[in-house]
Design goal:
The structure is a homohexamer of 160-residue chains. Chain A is α+β, with helices and mostly antiparallel strands and 160 residues long. The mean pLDDT of chain A is 95. Chain A has 2 helices and 6 strands, in the order E-H-E-E-E-E-E-H. In chain A, a hairpin with a 6-residue loop joins strand 5 and strand 6 (106-118). Chain A has a 5-stranded antiparallel β-sheet. Chains in contact: A-B, A-C, A-E, A-F, B-C, B-D, B-E, C-D, C-F, D-E, D-F, E-F. The C-F interface holds C 22-23, 25-27 and F 21-23, 72-73.
C-alpha cells in the first residue's frame, strides 16, 4: 500500500509504570477512569510516533471496559504496541495492569485498541506510514483481527 | 426495577468549559486525546453521582472518535447528562465541542457514551440507582437506544 | 465610544464545573481560596476573550469574600458573563457555587467582579472592544452599577 | 482582646520564588492572573498559620490590581506577613514582584490584603489567635490601617 | 543478615516511559533536571517497595550527572532495579535514556544510585528487607560494588 | 579566567517556600524525595541564571541525603546561592528545611551542591560566566571548598 519498509511491533513497544497519586483518584480512593485513559493515550501515542517516524494524533478509541478498580498507592502498568497500519493510520493495542506493589499481586484491568493518524509536520497533512510486519503468533492474531475492527469503526462512523 | 423515584436527565446535566493549556497538547499543538477523555470522564462522573446520590466509578467507555483537532488557547466545552439507568449502573452521554474563543467558531469534535456503577460508601458494594425519566424527544431517543447499546456492551464483554 | 457592534452578555456566558481533588485543598479538607480564584480567572478570561474577539489579560479583581468552605469531592460550579466594557477594558462578573454532588445541596459561596484588557496580538497594545448590550433586568442592573465600580477602582489606584 | 502572647510580623514573614512555566501562562505568554492569586493565597496561608498556630482558611481578598504582565521564564517573587489580628481572624499583606532573572530587572506588579480565619482542628470552629505586635515603622503603618480596611470589608459585606 | 528469602533484581525491575511536555522544560526547551530526578525517584521507589514488600522512603541519591539535554516532545525512558539490600535499607540503580521518538535515536543521559529505607506501616519504624540474589553478571557486578558505595555514603555522612 | 565583573553570592540568593500538598507525598504521608529534588533544582536554577545573566541547564547534583521525612501540610523551605564559578559552569548550594507551620518547629533536612552550565541563547553553546566574589566567612568557606568538590566530580566522571 506504500513503499516504506515494514516495521515489526517490537520496535514500537512501550512499557509505562505510574504510581497512582491522590489526585489521580476519586474521593473513595479509586483511580479515575479518565486518568487511565490519559495514560493509555500517552503510551499509544509514543508507539504510534515510533512506528510512523512522524507526529501522530489520536483518531479513535474503541470501547474500553474497566474490569477492576485501581487504588491510590498502587502501580498502573501499561504495555502498548502497534498492531496494524493503513495508508496514514495506525492501530495501537494497549494493556493495563494494576499492581499492589507490596504484594506483587497484579490484575489485568483494561485493554484498549486506539487509532492514530500520522501528520507530516511540514504540511500538517496526513503522512504515509510503514506497513506492520508481525513477528509472533500473538502479533499475527492482532494483525489479522485489525481489518474486522477497522470495518466496525467505518460502520459506526457511517451511523453518526 | 427499583423503588427509588425516577429522575429526569435535566437534574444531572453538567456544563464544563476548559481552556486548553500547553501541557494539554502534543508538540504540534493539538490537544492530547487522553486529556479530552479525562475531561469527558470528569463531566460524566459528576452527572452519574448526581443521578445516583452515591459515589460512582467508571465502568466503560463506548468507542470514541475524534473528528477535529483542538488547539492550545481554544476552549474545550463539554455537556453531559444521564440517559439511562439499570439496577446499579448508569449510562451518561457526553458531547464535546472545541471553540475558537476569539471568533466564536465552534466544532462538534466528539461524542461519548460512558457507563458508571454506583457504590454504597458504607459497604463498598454496588448500590441501587433511580430510574431515568426522560422529558424531551432527544432524551427519549437516547433512553430508547440504551438497551441496544447495553446489549452490545454485554456482547463485547462476552467476547473477551 | 467605539464603532464595534454591541454584544449581549448572553454571548459571553461561561459555565464551568470542576470536581475538587485532594491537591485543591488544605490539610483540613477545605478547597484553597487561591484555587477558587484561579477557576474564577479562567472562566472570566474566556468570557472576556469571547466578548473582545482578541486575547485578554487580567487587570484587576474587586474584593472577594469566601462565604462557605468547599470540600474535597464536591463540585465547584462557576458562571461568568461580561457586564460592561469601556474602550479597551471589560468587566466580567462571576458567581461561584459549591455543590454536594450526592445530595444536590448547593451553596452560593463567592461572587467576583474582574476586569480584563483586550490585546491586539499583532502589536501587543490594548485593542478596542465592543460595547455591551444588556438584555435582561439583571444584566441591566449589573451594567448600570459598572460605572460606580469603575470609579471606585480608579479611586483606589489613585491612592496607591 | 485575647490572652495569647502578641507575635511580631517578623515571625510570619514568608518568601516565595516561583519560576513561571508554560502552563502558568495564556497563549500570548502572560502569566495568568489566577496563578498569581493562587501563589498569593499560598504565601498568605503559611503566614496566617504561623501566626495562629492553627490551620487557617481564606476568608477574603481585598481588591487586587495587576500593574504589569509577568512572562514565561521570569520569576514570580512573593513576600507576605501578618499585619493585624482580631479575635479569630488575621490580616495578611502580600507583595508580588516579577523578575527578569537574566537581567535582574524587577517590577512591583501586585499588592494584596487577604484575611484568614483560624480553625480549631478538634472542633472545626474558629479559634482565638494572638494579637500582632508590630516592630517597624512599616509594620506599624500597616497595623494602624487595618481597622479602616476591616470597616470597609464589613461595609461591603453588609451591602451584599 | 535477616531471615527473609532472597529476591532477584528481576522481580523489582521497573520500566517507565514519559513523554516530555512543555511544563517539564525550561524556556530554552530543555527538560528540567529536577523533573528527571523526580522520575528517577518514582521508578526507584516502585523497585524498592516491590523488593521490601513494605512502603519505602528515599534515604539518599548518590551524585548524578546529566550528560545530554532532553527536549520537549522526546521520551524520557527509565529502567530501575534493586542492586543490594542491608538490614532495612535498599540500593536501587536507575538508568535514564532520552529518545527522539520519530527517529528512534536514543542517548544514555543519566545513571543514579539511590537508597531507600523500608517502613513497617504499623509502627512507622524501619522494617527488615530481604537480601538480594543477583542472577546475571551485570547484577553481580552491581551487587559487589554496593559495599564500596555504602562505605562512601557512610563516610560522607560522617563529614557533615 | 574571564573578564566579566565578579558577583557576590548575595545577588543570587533565592528563598523558596512550598506548602506540601497530597500529590507531593507517598501513601504513608511522607514528601517524595523526587519532589524535594525538583524544588532544589528550581531554586538552584534561578540562582544560576541570576549569576550567569543567561539561561542555565543542570549539569550535576552531588550526593544528597534526606535526614528527616517531611509531611503533608508542612512547609518545605529552600535557600540557594551560587558558591563558585568556572569558565562556563556554576556551583550552587541549596539548604532545605521542613517546618511544622503551626508550631514553628523547623528541621534541617537536606543540603545539595548542584552545578549548572550557562548557555548563550543565540548559539546554544556554553557561555562565559562572571567569577564569584564571596563576602562572608561562610561564603568564603564554600568558595574554597569548591575546587575540591570539582576535582571529585571530574574524578567520578572519569570512572564512568
Amino acid at each position: 500500500m506504500n513503499e516504506l519498509s515494514p516495521k515489526p511491533p517490537r520496535l514500537s513497544t512501550v512499557d509505562m509504570t505510574e504510581l497512582v497519586l491522590p489526585n489521580d483518584a476519586n474521593p473513595i480512593g479509586n483511580m479515575l477512569g479518565g486518568r487511565v485513559l490519559h495514560f493509555i493515550d500517552m503510551a499509544a501515542a509514543i508507539s504510534a510516533i515510533r512506528h510512523a517516524g512522524n507526529p501522530c494524533v489520536t483518531a479513535s478509541f474503541d470501547s474500553v471496559d474497566f474490569h477492576h478498580p485501581i487504588h491510590i498507592g498502587e502501580a498502573c502498568i501499561l504495555k502498548s504496541k502497534v498492531t496494524w497500519a493503513g495508508h496514514t493510520s495506525i492501530e495501537v493495542f494497549v494493556e493495563v495492569y494494576a499492581e499492589n506493589i507490596r504484594t506483587g499481586q497484579r490484575r489485568h484491568t483494561t485493554t484498549a485498541f486506539t487509532t492514530f493518524v500520522a501528520i507530516d509536520p511540514a504540511t500538517g497533512k496526513p503522512a504515509p506510514v510503514p506497513p506492520v510486519a508481525p513477528e509472533t503468533d500473538d502479533e499475527r492474531r492482532l494483525f489479522e483481527g485489525a481489518l474486522q475492527r477497522r470495518a466496525e469503526r467505518m460502520a459506526r462512523r457511517g451511523e453518526h
